[in-house]
């Protein structure tokens, strides 16, 4: 595992000092100190942690689940996993290990620290959090990886060590998160200038997310991707079949504690008539009071628990969020996932209006469908954000596009905070963990979690009676809620993997709108919103495909053909980089590569 670690051994401390000085907008950047004079005061530890925050997920098109089953896009982001073209050369893991080394340095220096100089528990907690965060990223990508929990030198034997199993890695993740939780402050005690720093609630939310991930992975994927640890993979050392239930029970309990914390609440401004039921759109472009008609700014947002901080003056996104958002194409599958206002899927609901008109399928539907696809009314007329216009699939995306684009905000200047874990996900984790653990969930538990999301979405509650009367599957309805609520938030590929349905979900064609046939025509609209027959079959190279829709078998336009997809069981994990394996011959490749 000499990877970039030898490089990191020499440069880790220095980069930790300077790597992300501007990432935390509220703090002054530290000077470039040496190891001999650093880590003497709490302010030194606080300044050092800035390097760790640079590892948090932030604004990146790679986090938008493009090329998943919910996206008809066939662009470069996510293409490898979405189409099963992951190359055997693998991807580098040096960034994760760089953060791990920086965390180890701080933890090592904390053991030598003179506590009479002041309290450093918060910064120790942050180091444990970021080490766990990095190992969780490695686990989801590669499975088992080498565990490094001390500061290495160029002579350390760990540089050439073998991989630990995923079960050993996960046990370390839980240990680190428990230490983080014990040391970190509550959200309420963070000063306004420190908002965005890791709180106890953020560490708890990550632990619940990780436990749900690992429990469902062990339940639905199993040990196949582990290999034997002798000829391939990282092996199964430390596996205990009893752990999945333990993780689910703990995730449930953690979520219940977060849900009871007054520091967090759903951002629901739908009662404000100026917001026109668009809370689920404005939430994701929330900046200053000019970012929505209601005048709400970031200080009103208590839904984001773990997030990356951005600021229009000090740290803009520097990517063209709005135009890219408009040009992402939702798939037929995502549109079908959203329920009608009676709480029923479109194929079960008498409220569903069908496809004979351009906007028929959007009537009486979940507000999240309308917020995520058609919320923006501020696009230039050339974009044409009318139903069924924007997007090659016949659907237009608006999630993340800003209010007042072109006047108030331009490309690359959008500066909303990026959500990594928000309260909505905690509600979903709570419900899923409960159901996976017990095989059931009560209406009271649904009301305490998922039904809060459905209320904001303007749809009827999910109940056991609704499921029973309409021959639905509660587990699938809980997963449906997760799919719709967390659309394009970087969760979908991980969900498909841990549920063991990666191949079944990604190998079918990505479809767009129903285009019907001679007896079932579907009008489109032009850029001005006028009805038109602008659909030109010869512009779609993959033609049409007859599929099951909410109104039976109908022709849909094919955006990305199943002929392009070859997702296989090996793709649940990425391959170990050939470069790393060339340096360290004790690293074994994952099965199938």
Summarize this structure as a short list of keywords or feature phrases:
single chain; 593 residues; mainly alpha; Serine Threonine Protein Phosphatase 5, Tetratricopeptide repeat; 3-stranded antiparallel β-sheet; two-stranded antiparallel ribbon; 21 helices; globular; disordered N terminus
Report a brief summary of the structure.
Helices cover 36% and strands 6% of the residues. It is mainly alpha-helical and 593 residues long.
Tell me what you see in this structure:
- This protein is mainly α and 593 residues long.
- Among the domains are: 216 residues, Serine Threonine Protein Phosphatase 5, Tetratricopeptide repeat, CATH 1.25.40.890; 126 residues, no CATH class.
- It is built from 21 helices and nine strands.
- It is globular and about 75 Å long.
């Amino acid at each position: 595992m000499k990877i970039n670690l030898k490089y990191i051994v020499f440069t880790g401390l220095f980069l930790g000092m300077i790597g992300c000085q501007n990432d935390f907008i509220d703090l002054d950047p530290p000077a470039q100190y040496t190891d001999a004079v650093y880590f003497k005061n709490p302010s030194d530890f606080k300044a050092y942690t800035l390097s760790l925050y640079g590892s948090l997920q932030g604004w990146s098109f790679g986090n938008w689940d493009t090329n998943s089953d919910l996206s008809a896009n066939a662009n470069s982001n996510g293409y490898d996993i979405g189409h099963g073209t992951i190359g055997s050369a693998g991807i580098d893991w040096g960034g994760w290990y760089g953060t791990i080394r920086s965390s180890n340095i701080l933890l090592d220096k904390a053991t030598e620290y003179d506590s009479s100089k002041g309290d450093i528990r918060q910064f120790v907690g942050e180091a444990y959090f970021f080490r766990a965060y990095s190992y969780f990223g490695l686990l989801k990508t590669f499975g088992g990886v080498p565990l490094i929990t001390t500061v290495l030198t160029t002579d350390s034997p760990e540089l050439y060590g073998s991989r630990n199993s995923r079960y050993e890695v996960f046990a370390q993740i839980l240990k680190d998160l428990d230490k983080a939780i014990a040391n970190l402050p509550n959200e309420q005690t963070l000063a306004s200038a420190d908002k965005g720093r890791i709180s106890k609630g953020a560490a708890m939310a990550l632990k619940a997310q990780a436990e749900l991930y690992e429990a469902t992975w062990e339940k639905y994927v199993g040990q196949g991707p582990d290999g034997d640890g002798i000829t391939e993979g990282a092996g199964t050392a430390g596996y205990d079949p009893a752990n999945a239930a333990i993780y689910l029970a703990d995730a449930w309990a953690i979520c219940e504690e977060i849900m009871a914390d007054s520091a967090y609440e759903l951002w629901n401004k739908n009662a404000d008539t100026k917001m026109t039921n668009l809370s689920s759109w404005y939430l994701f472009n929330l900046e200053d009071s000019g970012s929505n008609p209601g005048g709400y700014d970031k200080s009103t947002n208590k839904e984001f628990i773990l997030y990356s901080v951005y600021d229009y003056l000090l740290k803009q996104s520097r990517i063209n969020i709005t135009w890219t958002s408009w040009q992402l194409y939702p798939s037929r599958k995502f549109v079908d996932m959203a329920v009608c206002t009676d709480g029923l899927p479109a194929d079960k609901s008498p409220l569903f209006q069908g496809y004979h008109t351009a906007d028929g399928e959007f009537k009486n539907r979940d507000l999240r469908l309308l917020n995520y696809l058609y919320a923006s009314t501020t696009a230039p007329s050339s974009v044409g954000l009318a139903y069924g216009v924007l997007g090659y699939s016949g659907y237009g995306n608006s999630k993340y596009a800003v209010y007042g684009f072109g006047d108030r905000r331009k490309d690359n200047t959008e500066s909303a905070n990026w959500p990594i874990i928000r309260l909505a996900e905690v509600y979903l984790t709570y419900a899923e963990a409960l159901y996976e653990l017990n095989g059931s969930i009560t209406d009271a538990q649904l009301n305490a979690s998922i039904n809060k999301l459905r209320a904001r979405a303007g749809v009827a509650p999910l109940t056991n009676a609704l499921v029973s009367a309409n021959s639905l599957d509660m587990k699938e309805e809980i997963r449906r809620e997760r799919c719709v609520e967390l659309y394009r938030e970087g969760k979908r590929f991980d969900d498909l993997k841990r549920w063991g349905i990666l191949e079944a979900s990604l190998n079918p064609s990505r479809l767009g709108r129903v285009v019907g046939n001679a007896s079932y025509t579907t009008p489109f609209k032009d850029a001005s919103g006028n009805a038109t027959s602008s659909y030109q079959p010869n512009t779609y190279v993959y033609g049409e495909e007859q599929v099951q829709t909410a109104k039976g078998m109908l022709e849909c336009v094919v955006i990305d053909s199943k002929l392009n997809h070859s997702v296989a069981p090996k793709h649940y994990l990425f391959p170990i980089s050939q470069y790393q394996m060339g340096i360290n011959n004790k690293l074994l490749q994952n099965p199938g590569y």
